[in-house]
Amino acid sequence: xxxxxxxxxxxxxxxxxxxxxxxxxxxxxxxxxxxxxxxxxxxxxxxxxxxxxxxxxxxxxxxxxxxxxxxxxxxxxxxxxxxxxxxxxxxxxxxxxxxxxxxxxxxxxxxxxxxxxxxxxxxxxxxxxxxxxxxxxxxxxxxxxxxxxxxxxxxxxxxxxxxxxxxxxxxxxxxxxxxxxxxxxxxxxxxxxxxxxxxxxxxxxxxxxxxxxxxxxxxxxxxxxxxxxxxxxxxxxxxxxxxxxxxxxxxxxxxxxxxxxxxxxxxxxxxxxxxxxxxxxxxxxxxxxxxxxxxxxxxxxxxxxxxxxxxxxxxxxxxxxxxxxxxxxxxxxxxxxxxxxxxxxxxxxxxxxxxxxxxxxxxxxxxxxxxxxxxxxxxxxxxxxxxxxxxx
Amino acid sequence: xxxxxxxxxxxxxxxxxxxxxxxxxxxxxxxxxxxxxxxxxxxxxxxxxxxxxxxxxxxxxxxxxxxxxxxxxxxxxxxxxxxxxxxxxxxxxxxxxxxxxxxxxxxxxxxxxxxxxxxxxxxxxxxxxxxxxxxxxxxxxxxxxxxxxxxxxxxxxxxxxxxxxxxxxxxxxxxxxxxxxxxxxxxxxxxxxxxxxxxxxxxxxxxxxxxxxxxxxxxxxxxxxxxxxxxxxxxxxxxxxxxxxxxxxxxxxxxxxxxxxxxxxxxxxxxxxxxxxxxxxxxxxxxxxxxxxxxxxxxxxxxxxxxxxxxxxxxxxxxxxxxxxxxxxxxxxxxxxxxxxxxxxxxxxxxxxxxxxxxxxxxxxxxxxxxxxxxxxx
Lengths: 392, 378
Hints:
The complex is a heterodimer. Helix content of chain A is 40%, strand content 23%. Chain A is built from 14 helices and 14 strands. Chain B has three domains: 2-122, DNA Polymerase III, Chain A, domain 2; 136-224 and 241-254, Roll (DNA Polymerase III, Chain A, domain 2), CATH 3.10.150.10; 257-372, Proliferating Cell Nuclear Antigen. In chain B, the strands form five sheets. Chain B has a nine-stranded antiparallel sheet. An eight-stranded antiparallel sheet of chain B has the order 8-2-3-4-19-18-17-12. A five-stranded antiparallel sheet of chain B has the order 7-1-9-10-11. In chain B, helix 1 packs antiparallel against helix 2 (79-88), helix 3 crosses helix 4 and helix 5 (269-280) packs antiparallel against helix 6. Chain B starts with a strand and ends with a strand. Classes of the chains: A alpha+beta, B alpha+beta.
């Protein structure tokens, strides 16, 4: 894996930036994205840099944010819009290389090894085009691997371009506290501190065998990262090779009623359907994640009657799980995941004697579709969607 | 109450009524067996919310003396302890004596137990079976009807009505139907002298009939059946078996049977069963999927694959083949279940395309029919 060039593109306060791009009146103003803006009870999920400079620290209750920044402008989140912009952003990245690995809605890796020494110029071009065409700021890290690229993109926000070389590890990374290393969370940092490892430099100087004994495989990984090593390839398929597809959402305000949860669940089920269909997979089961206001998290799953990619079974099963397992306490985050995925062509369903005619129809339609596509070229004909329901 | 009884007869009858006793009974007293001594014999009763069973042990049975009754009386004893105690007693006879504190002394040889009993008046009376539709079935036929349908009931609680077997009587013919919505078993039986008894939507819990089948004595000639609105009573010489019926409407099943077919085959049941059983060794997932393909007019190919493990190919010669070529996937285990109860050398199978249910029945008889849904790959 010698001589690679990896870029990490990270959109700056993505939701807030999209809102400013869509509404010039918001530009350059302190802006917060929060649910239930009108009631002042919501939670700030993202804030513009102007707002952050004035002390707004998401996630934070809206009333508190308003106190530190009285002229704070507030907008409610529009997730469909963010997904659409995200799609356009990745489309733009794909013009530079097919080796784009999306990580989340607002960040991704690019393998730009072929760019050679022009890589920083290309990074500048990407940043400029995203700014001009989408009116969105991003930070880009350029490095020999994913870990360093991600670390680099974090160094200058907003609108930074940071080139990080392996030899910079010693001066730039080692003085930082362990927590600053991507992949090290609060719990791990505490555990490291108990072993007197406080900085990334401490990890780099530690005995890798000792780290592996204490932390398992991730111990070995920490050691490698501390030395600036990371041989994970940029894999455009990475998002496809998953055992599950899921969505979760931090609620704009802690929810204590089923009526507040179900619409969110339904919306996530729609997106789940879209993603599964795009990836040509079906889920054999559904998992529901409930995180309560005190951060205790429960995950419960159930098998579907048959592998499915339709929002309806996801929603229905999610709802059943919710009804069975919700403790009644306020909920901060809700997530729904399709699990035990099977690829198209591998899913099997035992037809129902009472309702097999529905399957016959689907089967006939698919046969016709395949036939047409064979004659006209793949993708020439697709199934339509009713826009409102998201259901075919 | 005081009597001396043959231990083996006692044990057998206790086991029968125990089938109706649940350790999680809604009423605590229903965890017990009610024992009543009359002058001419003993009755044992066990009951839960679904089933009640009453067994009668006659004092004299032909030349045998089962029980010697000194004093009539009644008591309810904890089934869990009582059944095990009687089973383990040392001698071939047991003596039961009830004192006025409801304590029952059980003696056999050198062994003596004192069990606290409960008041028999607290034991719920068996529901009175009012006038209902009445007919008589031969015991072996009744057992066959149960065996050939009960396996197909649903075990899932999603559609409770499908956990039962539907009985319908029309023009002296009893039709029994069970389905879990992926396979369906139908068995018809002529019931002579059922007079003008006709009924439909009598849905008996599959579990009730399975238990009944276990305790019906083969030596018994016939069983009288009485069907009322909410229960069914089976009455043999020394046995009463009462089950509640399931509430709700059983789905219409007659129109589910395809009337036309595209491919008809006839195959030896044993070979088909053996081939599918082997194919199932490599079938993937919970659907037990097996694929069937017609190679030519007298040969079928049965295959099954688990991608990481391997593939099996079986060939089965068929006695008859007519109609279109065939390629279909199905749940092999369901076919095996049906083949086990089809007591015929050859089976006839009628297919109506890869996406339609197909019928299997004994080649030489038409009183039995099995319907299966195919498996769709997508």
